[in-house]
Design a protein that fits this description.
Length: 435
């Protein structure tokens, strides 16, 4: 059974093709390992009237990956595929399908993949009866059901490297992923997260964190160097780099001698001076850190696992001292937000020694604890239209309110935070950073 995997367009993004879609590249590589024909329809930036030209019509199985804000587009793709070939099977995976599988099936998808998708998609490509495909919800001849969840593989080195060759060469590298002048691409060093932040969707990973070995990471880096010699930089897309000290040292060692610079996300609470120095010596040029709020009360209320603001101030100071660029991420509108907490966040944006900041509007995505238990957080969810669930840029929204700030108040606070960031010179993300 031939499978086509689809990356949907997302017209909110500044550059839809900035990052290659690692998720479906992993899925494609897994199907190909077992001899199944697979291709990718990369529809990033492609309007619906051109989908027919770029989506193969000879597949028996179509797989769509979607977050909650993408779900409306996923349903449009489903309608397009159904109109063209009523016999084709259309399945959906990703975070949204994991947390709302029966809703996806009710909306017309033949199946929804719950959790990690490689083995489940392989079973579907093999033609296993829907009611026997572990890790999925399904519809079959008018019947609907939900099978048990598939256990996750313990060792993620078992997954083949992403099938980058299925995309055009120009879709693999971009010049604004790490610095603003060198071609770069993305990899992941781990899957999952052990923490329980109120706004994070844990269901897809079940609170587990699994990391690749240094040897496996090194082998992928060497393959990238071989196949894409123009790539000079690497961006890690996983959030947990640095969580395990030994693994962090191994990652640094994996880069040794390759001449690749890299950028990663770092969790607050684990960024010691020794770790940051190791990163710098291993080729790291930038770390991005989720600070979220300048108010300790907000951090505690949302189970961030740290709440000492001085710790954040120190981390950025140390990173600067060892020669690393830094980015700080903040969220306006978290449960518990009030005018005082906004002021504290603005003061921290102004004073923290970050080279750049990014500010998000709070969105409680389906599956996170705030979505499932808003009263527990004294939060009021007002809007369940997933088309509005965008948290950055011109398309950002507030879909709920706190007890002390309504949607209008939160929008004013969001704009104020950005004004503070701009006045303090922390909104020029890339200008001159590659020099």
């Amino acid at each position: 059974m031939k499978t086509t995997l689809i990356r949907l367009p997302n017209f909110h993004l500044h550059n839809e093709k900035q990052q290659p879609p690692l998720g479906i590249l992993y899925l494609a590589a897994y199907l190909r390992r077992y001899g199944f024909p697979v291709d990718i329809a990369d529809l990033a930036g492609v309007p619906p009237e051109q989908w027919d030209l770029l989506t193969p019509a000879d597949s028996s199985l179509y797989g769509i990956t979607a977050t909650s804000p993408d779900y409306g587009m996923a349903k449009k793709m489903l309608a397009f595929l159904r109109a063209r070939d009523k016999a084709a099977k259309v399945v959906i995976g990703g975070v949204h399908a994991t947390v709302m599988p029966m809703e996806c099936v009710n909306d017309g998808f033949d199946a929804a993949v719950v959790g990690e998708g490689e083995e489940t998609l392989l079973a579907m490509a093999m033609g296993v009866a829907p009611e026997n495909v572990v890790g999925s919800a399904y519809r079959n001849n008018g019947n609907m059901g939900w099978n048990r969840r598939r256990p996750m593989l313990e060792h993620i080195d078992e997954f083949p490297f992403p099938a980058r060759d299925l995309l055009p060469r120009e879709s693999i590298a971009a010049t604004d992923l790490v610095t603003d002048c060198n071609p770069a691409t993305v990899i992941t060093t781990s899957r999952g997260c052990p923490f329980k932040c109120s706004f994070c969707v844990q269901k897809i990973w079940q609170g587990k964190w699994r990391h690749r070995t240094a040897a496996n990471i090194r082998a992928e880096l060497e393959l990238i160097k071989q196949d894409y010699p123009e790539v000079k930089e690497i961006r890690f897309v996983d959030d947990m780099v640095g969580l395990n000290g030994t693994h962090s040292q191994e990652i640094c060692e994996a880069f040794r001698g390759l001449g690749l610079a890299w950028r990663c996300h770092l969790r607050m609470g684990i960024g010691t001076e020794t770790l940051l120095q190791d990163f710098k010596e291993g080729g790291c040029v930038e770390v991005s850190v989720g600070v979220e709020s300048g108010d300790a009360r907000i951090l505690k209320h949302n189970h961030k696992g740290w709440s000492d603001i001085s710790q954040a101030i120190s981390l950025f100071k140390v990173a600067k001292s060892v020669g690393l660029r830094t980015r700080a991420y903040f969220i306006i509108g978290l449960p518990g937000e009030n005018p005082e907490s906004v002021e504290r966040t603005c003061r921290l944006i102004e004073t923290i020694e970050a080279d750049a900041v990014n500010i998000f509007s709070f969105i409680p995505y389906p599956g996170c604890d705030v979505w499932e238990h808003p009263k527990k957080y004294d939060y009021r969810l007002l809007d369940r239209n997933f088309d509005d669930y965008w948290m950055l840029g011109k398309g950002h929204k507030f879909v709920g309110s706190t007890s002390e700030m309504n949607v209008g108040d939160l929008e004013v606070a969001y704009q104020k935070a950005w004004e503070v960031a701009e006045k303090s010179g922390k909104t020029q993300w890339m200008k001159g950073w590659g020099k």
